[in-house]
Amino acid sequence: MIAADHEEVLERVPLKAEIDIVHIRQLVRQRAKQYGMGLVDQTRITTAASEILRNMYVHADGGEATISAVSVQGRRGLLVTCQDQGPGIPDIQLAMQDGYSTADSLGCGLPGAGRLVDRLELASTVGRGTTVQLLKYLP
Amino acid sequence: MNEPSVVSKIPIIKLGRYLLVPIQVDMTDHMVGDLQTSVLEAIERTGAKGVLIDISVLEMVDSFIGRTLSGIARMAAIMDAAVVIVGMQPAVAITLVELGLEMKGIDYALNIENGMTLLNQRLREIDL
């Protein structure tokens, strides 16, 4: 997981229904804009968050998303943390492979999301849940 | 122009031989799925030869939305209608390519007018 020198939680939102995916990704966009990201970076982190939130909704029946302003090794960034108490991911390496998918979703979800941000961290325990962190540095 | 038929808040407007689908909202996955069904039903009902899906308002296209749009295009092709996606924002185009999503079977145009020209050309080629 990403070790932040400093973290200020901006939003903490439960993901329970499908509409929450839309709501949370709009919050990510608003915060990205507020913290000075350009249009392309706003779109990147919003799209990455949408991929992870959908995974959480489909595979873990929901969870919680946190948006934070962070400082990581002296660099400022926006951190989106998606946490669920779902079934967990048995083989993380496999899940991070391009083209791998369990839900017939073309399998560009996790690795694709990773390409859109500066760091993607994933921690998962089978039977306990999964946490995915997306970090995008501020310009 | 006929009365627009509103399904899931996304209108499908008949414009001569074509259908215009202006997506004006940030869609839930459910709405995206409904859109697929309602576009195909509208093609059947109207016999439209082309569909222009305007996504100029969409600030984000993720893999689910992209995959569904691609699905609509391939299904419409089987029903003898061509699909053109119009108005994609540059940031969305960049993100889609980086995401690694291949949207097969779709044509793109910068705006509705260009999309219409593209469909007209397509139909002329078929008529010849």
Give structural notes.
The complex is a heterodimer of chains A (139) and B (128). With 139 residues, chain A is of the alpha+beta class. In chain A, a hairpin with a 2-residue loop joins β2 and β3. The longest helix of chain A has 22 residues. Helices cover 37% and strands 33% of the residues of chain A. Chain A is built from four helices and five strands. A six-stranded mixed beta sheet of chain B has the order 1-2-3-4-5-6, with helices on both faces. In chain B, α1 packs parallel to α2. The longest helix of chain B has 18 residues. Chain B starts with a strand and ends with a helix. At the A-B interface, α1, α2 and α4 of A face α2 and α3 of B.
Which descriptors apply to this entry?
heterodimer; A: 139 residues; alpha+beta; Heat Shock Protein 90; 5-stranded antiparallel sheet; 33% strand; B: 128 residues; alpha/beta; Transcription Regulator spoIIAA; 6-stranded mixed sheet; 4 helices; 6 strands
Write a short abstract of this structure.
Chain A is an alpha+beta fold and 139 residues long.
CATH superfamily of chain B, by name, is: STAS domain
Mean pLDDT of chain A: 91
- Strand content bin of chain B: 15-25%
Distance between the termini of chain A: 22 Å
Termini separation of chain B (Å)? 28 Å
**Anisotropy-based shape of chain B:** globular
CATH domain class name of chain A: Alpha Beta
CATH class of chain B: Alpha Beta
How many helices of chain B does DSSP assign? 4
Strand content of chain A: 25-35%
Structural class of chain B: alpha/beta
CATH architecture of chain A: 2-Layer Sandwich
Tell me the CATH architecture of chain B. 2-Layer Sandwich
Global outline of chain A: globular
Topology at a glance:
The complex is a heterodimer of chains A (139) and B (128).
Chain A: E1 6-15, H1 18-34, H2 39-60, E2 63-72, E3 75-84, H3 92-95, H4 109-116, E4 119-125, E5 129-137
Antiparallel strand pairs in A: 1-2, 2-3, 3-5, 4-5
Chain B: E1 5-7, E2 10-15, E3 18-22, H1 29-46, E4 50-54, H2 63-78, E5 82-86, H3 90-99, E6 107-109, H4 112-127
Parallel strand pairs in B: 3-4, 4-5, 5-6
Antiparallel strand pairs in B: 1-2, 2-3
Helix pairs in contact in B: 1-2
